[in-house]
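Schema walkthrough. Field components (list of strings):
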Amino acid sequence: MTEHLELGNWGERIAANFLSEKKWKILEKNLRLKRGEIDIVAMDGKELVVVEVRTRTLGRILPPEATVGPQKLRKLVRSGEEYVMKNNWQGPWRIDLVAITINNDNSWDIEHITDISVGEFRS
Amino acid sequence: MSLVGGITLKGINAYKVEVEVEVTGGLFSISIVGLPDAAVKEAKERVRASLRSLGIRVRGRVAVNLAPADVPKEGALLDLPIAVGLAEKLGSLLLREEALFLGELALDGRVRGVRGAVPAALLARELKVPLFVSSENVPEVALVEGVEAYAVNDLQELIAHLRGEGVLNRVTRMDPSELEVTAEPDFSDIKGQGAAKRALEIAAAGHHNVLLIGSPGSGKTMLARALRGVLPPLSDEELTEVMLVRSTVGLSFENSRNRPFRSVHHTSSAVAVCGGGTSLRPGEITLAHRGVLFLDEFTEFRRDLLESLRQPVEDGNIVVSRSTGSVSYPSRVLLVAACNPCPCGWKGDPLEPCRCSPTEVERYQKKMSGPILDRIDLYVSVPRLSSRELLGLEGQQGEKSSQIRKRVCNARKIQQERWSPWGYSCNAELPEKLLRKEISLKSDVRTFLQGIASSLRLSGRGLSRVMRVARTIADLEGCDNVAVPHVSEALAYRETGFLS
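Field assembly_structure (string):
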């Protein structure tokens, strides 16, 4: 496995642990759908959450949350819709971002941003 | 049925808008239907942010319906009802009775004042429901009698009140009897110009439209401004009418019984003066309702603008029809126009020679000879005072506006009593036929008028104008019958003295 994919997998494990600690129920990991991929699907209480995980080393200057642009967001909305349809989910759902930044001394910071679409994209 | 109500404005009237909210599952989004304009559509951002500031998170797909669906909704007046409707749907509160909400939301949950608070208060009174308004609108709402209104500072306060956890301040009615009239400038501040002051007193007493003619710097504008100080104070009913109009355009309450004074620049468009536009706003003539509409540099106004003023000045209301609808605005104004006697401005001036040729003067004066001049009863010359006169009068004090106002009020009362059986309130409103029948001339006046009418070749309309003004002069003096001196003074205010 190449280095960047390994890093990604590691980040997703960290994120899943982080969410489990928050008492979220993890439903799916690394889901491949027709319209794109979803890193994690989890339940935050009664709300379904599609979680996008971004892992970066500090070598790059851009903060991880800035790497989700409008195009990626639209893709996430479409995949989320596909998942919701497939599983017949009737309640509310949202898209969250978990950003992991690896520092030079191999420690890491984790950041959780909720509801990154806030009504911006609609089908 | 939804218990949450908002309002939308049409003309100067408020109409109830029912706000229905539905929340279903899905990715968060808000859609507003029911002919919202851009400002209403943008409410979703303000509503979401302000609810979030209270810790109420909006989830899922939100649909807001504004009923009736076929009436266009405008402005930021619907922020508050949408927020309350949404909070109710999300289970943050439970409404027990119908209520009207009015206000714009800030992102942090504060409630801002909006235009239209007075019409909303009148509607709430009619529907017998409580009204919740921004604290900024309280001074206006306090004028409306018998409305159950509450002042809201922010959304949190309102929600606590609706939950029964807190109590909002109820708006107490302001007693309008404490309101006064101020005269600014006062007639006593104006030096000389005795004749012009007298003419304005007559104009105020009989609600006659006036044209002031004078050289530059002679004080036409100041006289016109002073006129509002001698007009009778607004009655309670008129006060509400004036506030209603001011509220619909978002002007604040003036806190006095002063009549409105609106000065219109000659470059103004017909829409700005008469009302209209896509969202149908009242124009200057409606803002001057029950007060003075001042047209400075009368000759410079576009012809079509003056023509469009004829009907509203005559009828006291104006119907504005546009593709978005048709509304009627009140426009009972006292028209005061001012102009120079000739293009250079110095015709008839004792010091400065006039540089205009007779043709130029004629062309200039022809510009204003139009049907609008038919609506003007008094033509008043405002001569420029020489510097010696100005200085010589330094120590002298003219009559105070308040004294003149007393006489004007008395004259108005006499007219009201006389004409109320026919439904008129002042001499200027009277139709010609009724005037001729009921003017009660002394017998010697009849012969005097006959002589003067033939020697001055007065037209029918010119004659009735003289009689109308003479009636007001007699009323100012408290005379039951019109006598010869009244008529001869009235003759001095004819247009022929200046034009031609």
